[in-house]
From TrEMBL:
Record-linked InterPro entries: MFS_trans_sf, Proton-linked_MCT
Keyword terms: Membrane, Transmembrane, Transmembrane helix
Entry annotated with the keyword Transmembrane: yes
Protein name from the UniProt record: Uncharacterized protein
PANTHER family, A to Z: EG:103B4.3 PROTEIN-RELATED (PTHR11360:SF284), MONOCARBOXYLATE TRANSPORTER (PTHR11360)
Entry's transmembrane regions: 24-49, 90-108
Length: 128
């Protein structure tokens, strides 16, 4: 789900790059971007429970802190990008930045269902 959310967020900004009317931006950022990042928040909090037995509260606090820190840092970054590259250039750059969510989600270890499924299909060398 996190990978899908990262793709939707990136696609929202990428389509916004080609937007020539405000209605398109309302659709991309009001619908695609929100749905994309709503699919990221839930699974990340679930993964905190799955990955951390000890110090789960600390891990949850770091997750919430990172979201708040991003909300603090991104507006000045957007302002800088808008001043230097304009609206279309900023949309394209932020689209590329959003693809980092996909790359980082690929580093997450699979859940126990996928581990069990993949281990059951492994054939040992020498087995016939």
């Amino acid at each position: 789900m996190i990978i899908i959310g990262g793709f939707l967020g990136s696609i929202a900004y990428f389509i916004g790059f080609f937007a020539d009317r405000i209605e398109i931006l309302i659709f991309t950022h009001g619908l695609l971007y929100v749905i994309g990042f709503a699919t990221i928040d839930g699974p990340t909090f679930y993964l905190i429970v799955q990955y951390f037995d000890r110090r789960r509260e600390l891990a949850n606090s770091v997750l919430v802190l990172s979201e708040s820190f991003g909300r603090l840092v991104l507006p000045p970054l957007y302002r800088y990008l808008l001043d230097v590259y304009g609206l279309r250039g900023t949309m394209l750059i932020v689209s590329g930045l959003m693809l980092n969510v996909v790359a980082l989600a690929g580093l997450l270890k699979p859940s126990s269902f996928f581990r069990t499924f993949s281990e059951s299909n492994v054939v040992q060398i020498g087995e016939t």
